[in-house]
Design a protein that fits this description.
- The structure holds 2 protein chains of 2 kinds.
- Chain A is of the alpha/beta class.
- Chain A folds into 2 domains: 141 residues, Rossmann fold (3-Layer(aba) Sandwich); 141 residues, Dihydrodipicolinate Reductase, domain 2.
- Chain A contains 10 helices and 11 strands.
- Chain A has a 6-stranded parallel sheet, with helices on both faces.
- In chain A, α5 runs parallel beside α10.
- The radius of gyration of chain A is 19 Å and the shape is globular.
- Chain B is of the alpha/beta class.
- Chain B has 2 domains: 272 residues, Alpha-Beta Barrel (TIM Barrel), CATH 3.20.20; 47 residues, Helicase, Ruva Protein, domain 3 (Orthogonal Bundle), CATH 1.10.8.60.
- Helices cover 44% and strands 13% of the residues of chain B.
- Chain B has an 8-stranded parallel beta barrel with strand order 1-2-3-4-5-6-7-8, surrounded by 7 helices.
- In chain B, α9 runs antiparallel to α10, α11 packs parallel to α13 and α13 crosses α14.
- Chains A and B meet through β7, α7, α8, β8 and β9 of A and α5 and α14 of B.
């Protein structure tokens, strides 16, 4: 079967894990890996895995986009360079999946709103953050039953799974995730907290989601909605698991989750990596299927 | 005589924590009026730095950490307006607080900040430290749970914070676990690598009754800033009781610049009557110090214990075993529920 050819930008933890996910896809094929350091391990690994590489950033990729028929790109660099990367690739008719906190395009959490984006053919879709992907489905599962005035999420991440980019820009992570809890999760106000824990052996990603409902929570319906949503996420992240809860306390609903990864690039504790790359892959697959069916058509490249 | 005499004439800057760390011991319920009253009295006692706001610092108001009756901005503005000599400081833990909140704290009058990370994660603080310096704030890097990193590791993390712009690097004994030799080893290692103009601080908790001894050990090893709290009002068994520490300093000839008797009066006449429980080394707070658990977990564990019937001490020991760190208060309920299921006290979902 024909596959849509993809470029990965950023050869860190996320970019590398994406190679594994995309290689398994029936509709996507990883072709290029873009880095900025010729000595980087990530680029060497990508070459070993059969990808073409450049260490000259996105500009090193641009001359090859048309001849290699690249139609989807994943950006796992930083919020600061994403806008420029996106502009250059969109101009060549490449659809951009944004894994940075830049969030210049619409926010996407697959089980909540992926369908809407595919129907609209957005040329830039943002994946929010690992914590956002792990928690917003649960917020939405509550808010689709009854209105949520405030939702708060706490993500605990293993130190070894957090790369230098996220560390140096923790505020962007906080802002983007908090905003998405509102925009996609459906809470009127959202707040995100992140904790990086260095325990050895590394702790598995944990997420606690708390929602304050306006009226007394309908325990039965909310519980059923949450369990159904967990099932939806498990379709692309099998290690997404309810540990405790939902715990009801007045108008507060608290859910205690863990996310085990598939262990593709980093070991299974790094569920945060998996939920991000799996969500991005699922998003790209949805677009790819539509492109292959001919139901959507990417714009023709602008003539330079 | 002993080496204590060698400290004669050393100058040490005291930093009071009772209106920030003390919020934990008050379930975040200190009113604006109380805060202004305490801060004014501390200011009049000559305490040069006074930390205020929610116990978890900027961004602290949350389901995770509790809601204070007022916003941080309201506390800072109310206190800063009344200060004659003291500087108002705040705590910022990246991942919880953000630069936006630091800007607004500054706008309300805060002039000093502890930028806090877990003792191995200093590289989550560069943007906040740099931003605090840009605002012109007195900026400290604050390495929490410092017993969980060895002296060489602490030195490396402190050097990172210095490279981001921190003017002071703190060894923070969040669990009240350290003994004087542990403190000396870490402060000594920092002193060896930091620039001579970079100051070193120590922030103690009194869970093993070592707050004073550890603070003196810190000064011996090169620290020049000590955090304490009037009457010890703080998380766990409290912080190093500031008035006791000031008295010891006076005996040893260490210069703090505070008026000891006035400080004693603040502790006795204002702080002690405010306490909801006597902040002291009791069974649970001792467990924190003994097991190396974050002091703030104390009251959360007691509440979880009441709800699920698992003794607080068992919960705390399990949290220590699982190496939970500051900010993971949600894992207290989670751990209590899991333990309750194992003990047949709670039905599995």
């Amino acid at each position: 079967m024909k596959k849509i050819r993809c470029a990965l930008i950023g050869s860190g933890n996320i970019g590398t894990d994406l190679i594994y996910k995309i290689q398994r896809s029936e509709v996507l094929e990883p072709v290029w890996m873009v880095g900025i350091d010729p000595e980087s391990e990530g680029l060497a690994r990508a070459r070993e895995m059969g990808l073409k590489t450049t260490a000259e950033g996105v500009d090193g990729l641009l001359p090859h986009v048309l001849e290699d028929n690249i139609q989807i790109a994943f950006d796992a660099t930083s919020a600061y360079v994403h806008a420029e990367n996106s502009r250059k690739l969109n101009a060549l008719g490449v659809l951009m999946i944004d894994l940075t906190p830049a969030a210049i395009g619409p926010l996407c959490v697959p089980p909540v709103n992926l369908r809407q984006h595919a129907d609209k053919l957005e040329m830039n879709v943002n994946m929010i953050s690992c914590a956002g992907q792990a928690t917003i489905p649960v917020v939405h599962a509550v808010s689709r039953i009854q209105s949520v005035g405030y939702a708060e999420i706490v993500a605990s991440l293993a130190s070894k799974s957090i790369g230098p980019g996220t560390r140096a820009n923790l505020d962007e992570f906080t802002y983007t995730t908090s905003n998405a809890i509102e925009k996609v999760g459906g809470a009127r106000k959202g707040k995100a907290l992140a904790i990086i824990n260095p325990a050895e052996p590394p702790m598995i990603m944990r997420n606690t989601i708390s929602c304050l409902t306006d009226d007394e929570p309908d325990q039965e319906r909310i519980t059923a909605s949450i369990l159904e949503m967990i099932g939806e996420v498990q379709k692309y992240v099998p290690g997404y698991r309810l540990v405790n809860g939902p715990l009801f306390d007045g108008n507060k609903v608290a859910v205690f989750m863990e996310v085990a990864g598939l262990g593709d690039y980093l070991p299974t504790y790094a569920g945060n990596l998996d939920i991000m790359t799996a969500a991005a892959t699922r998003t790209a697959e949805m677009f790819a299927e539509e492109i292959l069916k001919g139901t959507i058509q990417l714009p023709a490249p602008e003539v330079a | 005589m002993s080496e204590s005499n060698s400290l004669k004439g050393r100058k040490v800057i005291l930093h009071d924590m009772c209106l920030r760390d003390g919020m934990h011991a008050k379930r975040e319920q200190i009113s604006i009026e109380q805060m202004v009253k305490v801060a004014t009295a501390l200011d009049a006692s000559g305490v040069p730095y006074i930390q205020v706001t929610h116990g978890a610092g900027l961004g602290g108001n949350s389901l995770q950490h509790g809601f204070a009756p007022h916003s941080n901005e309201e506390y800072i503005s109310a206190v800063a307006a009344q200060m004659k000599q003291a500087k108002v400081s705040v705590l910022l833990i990246p991942g919880l607080g953000t630069m936006k909140e630091l800007q607004s704290a500054y706008d309300c009058g805060a002039r000093s900040v502890h930028v806090a990370t877990h003792c191995t994660e200093a590289d989550t603080s560069p943007q906040h430290i740099a931003f605090a310096r840009k605002l012109g704030m007195d900026t400290s890097g604050f390495l929490m749970m410092a017993h969980l990193n060895d002296p060489a590791g602490i030195a490396k993390q402190g050097k990172l914070m210095e490279s981001y712009g921190a003017q002071t690097v703190y060894v923070t004994d969040s669990a009240g676990y350290m003994l004087p030799e542990d403190v000396k080893a870490r402060i000594g290692a920092l002193r060896e690598v930091l620039n001579p103009e970079t100051e070193i601080g120590f922030h103690g908790h009194h869970n093993l009754g070592m707050g004073i001894a550890n603070s003196i050990a810190a000064i011996e090893a090169g620290a020049s800033r000590i955090d304490g709290s009037a009457a010890g009002l703080g998380a766990g068994a409290g912080n190093t009781p500031l008035e006791v520490f000031a008295a010891v300093c006076e005996r040893m000839g260490i210069e703090t610049g505070v008026d000891l008797f006035k400080l004693m009066d603040v502790a006795e006449d204002i702080i002690v009557p405010m306490m909801e429980h006597v902040v002291r080394v009791d069974r649970e707070s001792l467990t924190l110090g003994y097991a190396g658990v974050y002091s703030t977990f104390l009251l959360h564990s007691k509440r979880a214990s009441e709800r699920f019937g698992v003794p607080a001490r068992d919960i705390l020991v399990e949290l220590g075993r699982k190496k939970m760190i500051g900010g993971q208060e949600d894992m207290i309920l989670d751990t209590a529920m899991t333990m309750a299921k194992e003990r047949g006290l709670l039905k599995s979902a």
